[in-house]
Sequence to fold (369 residues):
Amino acid sequence: MTPKRLSTKTNKGTIARSMSEAKSIIPPTATIKLDSDALAANWRNLDRLSGKAKAGAAIKANAYGLGVRAVVQKLITAGCTDFFVANWQEAREIEDLTVGKTSVSVLNGVRAVDMPFALQSPAKPVLNSMEQLDRWKPSGKACDIMINSGMNRLGMNVEDLSGDLFTGMQIDIAMSHLACADEDVPQNEDQLARFKAALDIVPGKRTSLANSAGIALGSEYHFDLTRPGLSLYGGIQRPALANMIKQVAIPQAEIIQIRSLRAGDRVGYNAQYIANRPHDIGILAMGYADGYLRGFSNIGLFIHEGDRLPVVGRVSMDLIAIDLTVAPGLKEGDWVDCQFDLGIASLQSGLSQYELITGLGNRLAREWT
Ligand SMILES: *Cc1c(COP(=O)(O)O)cnc(C)c1O
Fold:
């Protein structure tokens, strides 16, 4: 990414003039440690669990917040050849990495204003409506079709489909999306049946239905291509995925101050923690502006070499206090890991696993190992 303003030489030395430039010169106080091996292993395991189908990857929203360019490079190395983004800006961001060797599908379709870019892009639109179909058809270029099988979000209604609609079109993937794959409800089978009926009409070269949780619903749901997102990045929405999905992202923060509390001392905004005994706390350089939201106040957990360090008081914008009782050796400048197993963190905070991972802020440096 190019900095918006360049540094200027002054008699006091070089001054950083953009956030990205500042990040490259000044050591961070909080980071996200990202595990390349876990990401690759998660994709391989989801690919294997997809049986005869091949696994692709949903990489929308900056690869669920983790950093799309690094994620795409690692997934291509692992063997992934089919990527799903939300819009054309996201397709553009990875064009140089994906062109000529992978399929990229733009899930939100193609608006009239997207056409000049879309027509010269190697990515394909997922056509979601009759209007989009009419818009794209004259180009004769490849596209995908989204079928509304019952989620009623994007996609063409099964009743509106007829074979002649698609004559002369190059349709790569005929797809639909499951609304409740993380639950055992009749809607999964309903959507499966409606999708199959639509496939008699839509002449796609390939077929695709399952997201991460859908892969665990069984082989009937696999078709030719699966589209995991959350589970690539460590999310587990069905028990069957628990043993094969590894945590990818661990936020880490530096202790920038240690202080000793007396019994009765209060911590943080609105004094939501009152010490009932004397003990030390550490102040971390991370807060809700980094996506560690206030739902973790007095509930979240940090870890240092196995020692459990609970969050005390309310999470601030840029700061968190943790109880250091069990780790008296910690000092200012030491780093601690955030307990960010998505299943556990979701229960603690009341946020979904999706919200937790996509919400991690840009101030946290992404550090791949
Ligand atoms: C986001 C998305 C996916 C991936 O879903 P996960 O639940 O994250 O695995 C797959 N398909 C479509 C159409 C999506 O929008």
Remarks:
- The pocket of pyridoxal-5'-phosphate is lined by residues 58, 60, 84, 107, 177, 211-212, 227-231 (CB under 6 Å).
